[in-house]
Design brief:
Layout (H helix, E strand, L loop, with lengths): L1 H26 L8 E3 L7 E5 L8 E6 L2 E6 L3 E5 L10 E10 L2 E4 L3 E4 L3 E3 L7 E5 L2 E7 L6 E9 L8 E6 L1 E2 L3 E6 L8 E9 L4 E3 L7 E3 L9 E8 L2 E8 L7 E8 L11 E6 L3 E6 L4 E9 L2 E2 L3 E5 L8 E2 L14 E7 L6 E4 L10 E9 L2 E10 L11 E6 L6 E6 L3 H4 L3 E10 L8 E6 L4 E4 L7 E10 L3 E10 L8 H29 L19 H4 L22 H13 L1 H18 L8 H18 L9 E5 L2 E5 L5
Parallel strand pairs: 9-17, 27-31
Antiparallel strand pairs: 1-2, 2-5, 3-4, 3-6, 6-7, 6-8, 10-11, 11-15, 12-13, 12-16, 14-15, 16-18, 19-20, 20-23, 21-22, 21-24, 24-25, 24-26, 28-29, 28-30, 30-31, 32-33, 33-36, 34-35, 34-37, 37-38, 39-40
InterPro entries: FN3_dom (IPR003961), FN3_sf (IPR036116), Ig-like_fold (IPR013783), IL11/IL27_subunit_beta (IPR053073)
Pfam family, one: fn3
Keywords: Signal
Length: 647
């Protein structure tokens, strides 16, 4: 009995040992997952089988029914369709067996029809954009037809939140799948993952999930850009600065310039992306447009459009007519541009496309230190003609009784057909057929004019035409009516009159004071009142004055005659002292009259005596008294001035 008992214990030990060995071997080989075999598209020639396992260094064998593929060192295997031609359209069993040393472990088997199974690659090249509060997602299409899609979403600011799932079908074009996710917040940042599968395959498989994609908020504002242009030696330096925009990852600048940098290639758009908030470029004298916008993965902001006009046409010279026959210099880039509108819109043309009556802008530039430098720029007509259209928007305004203001816009450059030399402005009265037309030549750069010298309350017809070197174009006309002359306001007249009187009075006072200071007044002599003598008897008053005979005595011939110069001096001296002598004589006469004696009057005898004594004085003092040439003779109140010429 004891021996049997010992044998049973030994048998149990052996069984446990066998079981332990089997468990140890099993734990060393982890079974792979059930494999998936598929094509990437319905038309793909190859199949791909995939599985997963913990230990990726383990080698595996792939079984497709009786076909065995040995020692696969990866977790996938790509096989060509040819070996499986007889198997692709029927159900087959697929499994994977892993082995480590003598240990083997197999996955569960799966029954599939290989030609019915399609699994797309994970979505690639995902793009996004906001349409109000709806998010548009696009990615590269695996096939032309639509696909089913699953989309996971959550807010980027709440990464611990669970994902929200949306299942939908895509819309497709030839190369892209499109999905519109509605009712989101466009100013919020989201995280997105996408997977898709075929809607045409009989056994479609979901693709792998795409990597997590960040969807930024929408950029709604236009960048605030400032521009500074510096003109320097044939080139223009343009410095752009702008404010940093929220949610913008970079900034895009699209520069369309006629000079296209420093080469002579065909004009193209010049685009750069930058993370800075400033940009410096150099452009030629031609018109340039620069677009600046903020960008992120969800799209771009509305662009800020910066217009850099060409050098004003008024400052450009006229090209030589032989320009087309001149070969451009080496290392220069000739450019021809058709001027399409008044804002110098440019269209590039070649020198073989030059037409008659069309204005062109020609310039040559070359590259100096990487900057386009324009050294020749001019306007060109191959052949000129008269304008096709009249000046635009010709109007009259602010009419008065004798004038009016006129304004107009230039003839479009496409209709000028030549260089305008001037405008011709003519006016004529409508009321009369015989009135002469008055015309004025106005500079081609002027757009306003004041027409004067008109007649009040008259209707005029005013015409304006553009003139080239070939002739005049159509005329623009306007009819004006001058106003009646308005009377000046009475109150205004009174104010002016009052002001004139005040100013005149002030000026008179000022001038009088100045005159008094410069020319003082001569004092007026004081003459006492004359009291006539009253005779004692009436008989004396009735006495009449008698005139005795006047005796003139000639000078003695021996007396030396007075020179004529001395005579004139004596006359002047006599006139100067006449008033004084007369006053003294009057005083003496008054005293005699008051004396009341008629005997004191001069008698002929006394007169003779006086003359004699005077002659004797002259004889003695003739050289000292050269100016004494006349004698005063008194007779009964009468005074006679006798000169030597009358003797």
């Amino acid at each position: 009995m004891e021996s049997l008992k010992s044998w049973s214990l030994l048998l149990e030990y052996i069984i446990l040992l066998i079981l332990f060995t089997t468990v140890s071997k099993g734990s060393a080989c982890d079974a792979p997952s059930s494999p998936e075999c598929f094509r990437r598209t319905a038309e793909a020639p190859d199949y791909r089988c995939e599985w997963s396992m913990k230990n990726t260094t383990v080698k595996c064998d792939l079984y497709i029914d009786e076909v065995r593929v040995r020692n696969i060192a990866r977790t996938w295997y790509k096989i060509n369709e040819k070996p499986f031609q007889r198997l692709k359209n029927r159900s087959v069993k697929i499994w994977v067996e892993a082995h480590i040393g003598n240990s083997r472990c197999a996955s569960t088997n799966t029954s599939v029809v290989l030609s019915h199974t399609v699994k797309y690659e994970a979505p690639k090249h995902i793009s996004m954009s906001w349409l109000k509060n709806n998010l548009s997602l696009s990615w590269t299409a695996s096939e032309k037809h639509p696909a089913a899609a699953e989309i996971l979403l959550r807010r980027d600011a709440h990464r611990t939140d669970s994902w929200g799932k949306i299942t939908t079908n895509t819309t497709s074009d030839t190369s892209m799948h499109h999905v519109l996710v509605e009712n989101l917040l466009k100013d919020t940042v989201y995280q997105v993952q996408i997977r898709h599968r075929s809607t045409k395959a009989l056994n479609p498989l979901w693709s792998d999930w795409s990597p997590v994609v960040i969807v930024p908020a929408e950029l709604e504002q236009i960048p605030e850009v400032t521009m500074n242009i510096t003109l320097s030696n044939g080139t223009r330096k343009v410095v752009l600065t702008w404010k940093k925009m929220p949610h913008a990852a970079m900034y895009s600048l699209n520069e369309t310039q006629s000079s296209n940098g420093c080469n002579c290639k065909k004009i193209r758009d010049y685009r750069i992306n930058t993370t800075e908030t400033n940009y410096t470029t150099f452009v030629s004298y031609s018109a340039v447009k620069i677009f600046v916008n903020g960008r992120n993965a969800a799209g771009s902001s509305p662009p800020a459009i910066l217009q850099i006009p060409a050098v004003p046409a008024a400052e450009l010279k006229i090209c030589d007519n032989t320009l087309l026959n001149i070969k451009p210099k080496k290392k220069t880039c000739p450019k021809w541009f058709e001027l399409q509108d008044a804002d110098l819109g440019l269209r590039s043309v070649s020198d073989t496309d030059i037409k008659d009556y069309v204005r062109y802008l020609y310039f040559e530039h070359k590259c100096i230190d990487g900057k386009p430098w324009t050294h020749t720029m001019c306007l060109f007509y191959q052949k000129e003609g008269a304008p096709l259209r009249e000046p635009q928007d010709f109007i009259a305004f602010s009419e008065t009784h004798n004038s009016t203001n006129l304004s107009w816009k230039a003839i479009p450059s496409t209709d000028q057909r030549g260089f305008l030399t001037h405008y011709s402005l003519c006016s004529v009265k409508v009321s009369s057929q015989d009135e002469r037309k008055e015309c004025h030549n106005i500079s081609a750069s002027v757009m306003k004019y004041r027409l004067g010298n008109l007649t009040q309350e008259t209707t005029y017809r005013v015409s304006l035409v553009g003139v080239t070197r070939v002739g005049e174009g159509p005329e623009a006309t306007v009819t004006i009516n001058t106003l009646p002359e308005k009377p000046v306001n009475v109150l205004w007249k009174l104010c002016l009159l009052f002001l004139f009187v005040i100013l005149t009075t002030m000026c008179t006072c000022i001038l009088k004071r100045i005159k008094d200071n410069i020319f003082p007044a001569v004092p007026t002599p004081v003459i006492p009142d004359f009291i006539p003598y009253q005779p004692e008897s009436q008989g004396f008053m009735e006495r009449k004055e008698e005139v005795d005979e006047l005796t003139l005595l000639q000078l003695h011939p021996e007396v030396k005659s007075v020179p004529e110069d001395a005579e004139e001096s004596a006359v002047l001296a006599g006139e100067w002292e006449e008033d004084t002598d007369e006053d003294e004589d009057n005083e003496r006469w008054d005293s005699r009259m008051l004396g009341g004696s008629s005997d004191e009057c001069l008698s002929p005898g006394s007169t003779e005596e006086a003359l004699r004594s005077s002659r004797e004085g002259e004889m003695t003092d003739v050289e000292q008294l050269d100016n004494e040439i006349a004698m005063l003779i008194y007779k009964k109140g009468l005074v006679f001035d006798v000169k030597t010429d009358s003797l």
